[in-house]
Automatic annotation (TrEMBL):
Keyword Cell inner membrane tagged: no
Keywords tagged on the record: Kinase, Transferase
Record protein name field: Streptomycin 6-kinase
GO biological process: secondary metabolic process
Gene Ontology molecular function, alphabetical: kinase activity; phosphotransferase activity, alcohol group as acceptor
Domain of life: Bacteria
SUPFAM superfamilies (alphabetical): Protein kinase-like (PK-like)
First and last residue of the signal peptide: none
Pfam families tied to this protein: APH_6_hur (PF04655)
Length: 308
C-alpha cells in the first residue's frame, strides 16, 4: 500500500498551529515515510489512523511480518521527548518503542490490538456513574505506574521541566493583557500566580505526563490497557493529575471534591497539589478560549473545583 492521505485533523492542526513550517513538514512527509519504510524494512498495512493533531500514524508490517505502528510527529516542545518516555517505560503500561529515528523524531512502536480507546469502551452500564469511576480507576492506575525516576540517555531528547510552565504562566499573569484579564478575571489571575509559587519547589521529580486523558489509553492483548501518545515532562506526580483532573472536571460526569480525591488517591499524589495543577490548567484554558459559551462552561467547571 502506498502513502496514505494525511487525515484532515492532522493537516488542519499542523497548518493552524505552525503555519509555513507546518506546510513544509506536510510537504516532506511522503518522502519521510518512504525513507523510514526503507530503513526499517516496513510495509504499509492500512490507512493512517484518524483523530490525531500533529502526527502521521499508520499501521505497518515489519520484515518478519510482525505488526507495528509508524508514527511521524511534527516535533514541538510538548511531544519532542515522547520516544524518551516510551524507551524508559519499556512497555510497562505503555506501548513498546521498537525503534527511533533522531533525525525526524519518528518512532516504530508496538501496535495495540484491538486498540479501542478507554473513553469509548462500553462497560456494563457504560453510561452509569459506576462505569465512569471504573474508567477513572483504570487511567489513574496506569499513570501511577508510569511515573518513575528519569535517567537521561544518550541519543534521546531530554525532558522539558514542568517548572518551566510555571515560569511562563507567572510571566504572562503578572502583567496580563486586556483580553487575558477579561477571560480569566483579576482574582483568578492573582490566585494563579500564588499557585505558581506554591508549586515551584516540587517534593519529587520523575517522568510526568502532560496529556493524561481517557483517549490516550487503548485496549491491548499484552496488557488489558496501554498508554499511547505520552507527553513527558520532568515533573512531580501531582502534575499528571492536573491535566487528568482538568479534563474530567470539564467533560466527565463526576466533579468536585469526590473526583479530586479519586484522582489524587489513584495517582498516589498530594491532593492539594493535584488541585493546584488542575486549576492552573483551567486558567490556561480560559486564557485560550474565545467562544463565549465554551468560556462560560469552563468557568463554571473551574468554580466547582475551586469550591471543592
Amino acid at each position: 500500500m502506498r502513502f496514505g492521505v494525511v487525515p484532515s485533523s492532522v493537516r488542519r492542526d499542523v497548518l493552524n498551529w505552525h503555519g509555513d513550517a507546518g506546510q513544509a513538514w506536510l510537504d516532506e512527509l511522503p518522502r519521510t515515510v518512504w525513507s523510514l519504510k526503507r530503513a526499517w524494512s516496513l510495509r504499509i498495512d492500512g490507512p493512517p489512523y484518524d483523530g490525531g493533531s500533529h502526527s502521521y500514524v499508520v499501521p505497518v508490517l515489519r520484515e518478519d511480518g510482525a505488526s507495528a505502528v509508524l508514527k511521524v510527529i511534527y516535533r514541538d516542545e510538548e511531544n519532542r521527548a515522547e520516544p524518551t518516555a516510551l524507551r524508559q517505560y519499556g512497555g510497562d503500561g505503555a506501548v513498546r518503542l521498537h525503534d527511533y529515528d533522531p533525525a525526524t523524531g519518528a518512532m516504530l512502536m508496538e501496535r495495540a490490538v484491538p486498540g479501542n480507546r478507554l473513553k469509548s469502551t462500553r462497560f456494563f452500564g457504560h453510561k452509569t456513574p459506576a462505569a465512569a469511576w471504573r474508567r477513572i480507576g483504570i487511567a489513574t492506575g496506569l499513570y501511577r505506574r508510569l511515573w518513575r525516576p528519569y535517567e537521561p540517555e544518550a541519543g534521546y531528547p531530554d525532558l522539558p521541566a514542568a517548572t518551566g510552565m510555571l515560569d511562563d504562566w507567572r510571566a504572562r499573569y503578572a502583567d496580563p493583557a486586556p483580553d487575558l484579564l477579561d477571560r480569566v478575571g483579576d482574582e483568578r489571575l492573582r490566585d494563579a500566580l500564588a499557585r505558581c509559587g506554591a508549586l515551584a519547589d516540587p517534593p519529587e521529580l520523575g517522568i510526568g505526563n502532560r496529556d493524561t486523558h481517557l483517549s490516550n489509553i487503548v485496549s491491548a492483548e499484552r496488557e488489558p490497557w496501554l498508554v499511547i501518545d505520552p507527553k513527558p515532562y520532568l515533573a512531580e506526580r501531582a502534575f499528571d493529575g492536573g491535566y487528568f483532573l482538568f479534563k474530567q472536571q470539564l467533560h466527565g460526569p463526576h466533579s468536585g471534591a469526590e473526583l479530586l480525591r479519586a484522582v489524587a488517591e489513584g495517582l498516589g499524589a498530594d491532593t492539594a497539589r493535584v488541585r493546584d495543577w488542575a486549576l492552573l490548567r483551567f486558567a490556561d484554558h480560559l486564557a485560550e478560549t474565545a467562544d463565549e459559551r465554551d468560556l462560560e462552561a469552563a468557568s463554571k467547571a473551574m468554580r466547582d473545583l475551586e469550591d471543592a
